[in-house]
Amino acid sequence: MNLEVRVILLAIIGGLGLTLIISQLLPAQPSLKDALDRLSGKPDRHDLLTTTKITQTETTRVEVATLNVGLRLYPILITQRWLKIPVKDLAILQRGVPRFLGDKVLSATAGLFLPSALNLVAALAGVAISWRFPVLAGVALAIALFFAGDIEVRRLATAARTEFRRALGAYIELAALCRNAGIGVTQSLEVAAKVGDTWVFQQLTDALDNAAYSGRNSWTALEVVSHELDIPDLADVADIMELSGVHGTSVYAPLRASAAQLRNTMMSADQGDSRSATQKMSAPLAGLAVLFFILLLIPAMSNIVNG
């Protein structure tokens, strides 16, 4: 195979791959059946825990394909005991379990075939290696990418919980001010939640609205959110408001104290992170100092050896 044929084959493969990537990144065409079901008010086929609502104006074909793969594999993978699904982490990230499973499966599939595809391109260029190594590398890469999603979700969930707790401090202060002004317990929680427009306040607003529509107490709704998102500080707020709602206890001082304690905890965590970052910088600085010392010794050692 001469050089011109190889260049033509590589150009065809590259053009086909680029076309597929562009086609997958374009906005997805809405499903007519799903659109008619939403317009007719029919319930979703899956509950909110296991699905992710698709907004066609904001979702690409890749995301739709990932969700569809996850929905098909969900009944199979959910029964596997070795597969640990971080439900609470996905809940605070507002991601469905099928979307999470689809990401894992597609990432592992891509990792499985990527080394072999690269070796195929290398074979067309005349520099291929034994197929044993790409196959083994593909298996190892597939396993690594399959579990890499858990690490990424855990990292994002930790950051989201930190953001939630920062906003929760402001929410507690607002609820305390509303309660001190003589507003009722439920109304205080609802008014405080409607002040902010971030995703944290939106989640609190949705939970309180659902509780009002279903006839539940507002503090019960906060306890449910605290359990689903793994935010213990929110459960403390729910307990304080329950005392006021059931026994009529004054909660202005306890709420202010809870907000102050939350801020102090966050400040201590930030100070610990800053100290940790400072300590991490010590190793590179020490390495630079050692390297500079070695550079100073090289001329002296050279003179000693040659002299």
From TrEMBL:
The keyword Transmembrane belongs to this UniProt entry's keyword annotation: yes
Q: Where is the Type II secretion system protein GspF domain?
A: 173-299
Lineage top rank: taxon: Bacteria
**Which of UniProt's keywords are assigned here?**
Cell membrane, Membrane, Transmembrane, Transmembrane helix
Q: Report the subcellular localization.
A: Cell membrane
Q: Give the organism, scientific name.
A: Antrihabitans spumae
Q: Which residues cross the membrane?
A: 6-26, 135-153, 285-305
Q: Name it.
A: Type II secretion system F family protein
The membrane topology term of the UniProt record is: Multi-pass membrane protein
InterPro entries tied to this protein: T2SS_GspF_dom
A Pfam family of the record is T2SSF
